[in-house]
Design a protein that fits this description.
heterodimer; A: mainly beta; three-stranded antiparallel beta sheet; 9 strands; B: mainly beta; seven-stranded mixed beta sheet; 11 strands
Amino acid sequence: QSALTQPPSASGSLGQSVTMSCTGTSSDVGAYDYVSWYQQHPGKAPKLMIYEVNKRPSGVPDRFSGSKSGNTASLTVSGLQAEDEADYHCSSYAGSNNLVFGGGTRLTVL
Amino acid sequence: QVLLVQSGAEVKKPGASVKVSCKASGYTFTSRYIHWVRQAPGQGLEWMGWINPNSGDTNYAQRFQGRVTMTRDTSISTAYMELSRLTSDDAAVYYCAKSYGGPGGDYWGQGTLVTVSS
């Protein structure tokens, strides 16, 4: 499987909203509602923020939301806070018990 | 609380093998798959495969098949990932992650840095 496509960078101002995309194919993102999003601060392990396209694990602020349209999934962070500055990685189930990740997007909070 | 604690950093020579451990606590080890994911310096995450700790069944990403072996020891709630025939391209931080119940990880280990150098 090829990696999912994420823009290398995104930015937004404090208090504003930003949306990051994750583009796959009809064999992964488009085929299954199993898209996850992870937040990763420098030197730290990834943290699950969204699973199954739009579900939030307990403890994740509702400022984080996910959606999907066709072969593209999106993560929106509203009310940006300084601590949201991090790398965001998407993943998708790709069939045959396989997972695929994107290359990650670095979010800068201005 | 759920914790995944991985073994320490490793330095290996090209052609060697490395075995990383992942000790789980705070939940029933056999109830959730364990995923292995790696991250090369400055790069994104790369899924390597999973193991079902209950049955020992595994599924490996195609690019690692023949070179990776995932095992577990249920008596000590520990999963292992062994990667053989190392090259410089295998230098990365290796993570284990507990499945949330679907295809993804909700709790992650702290990562194990593997350096490959002659």
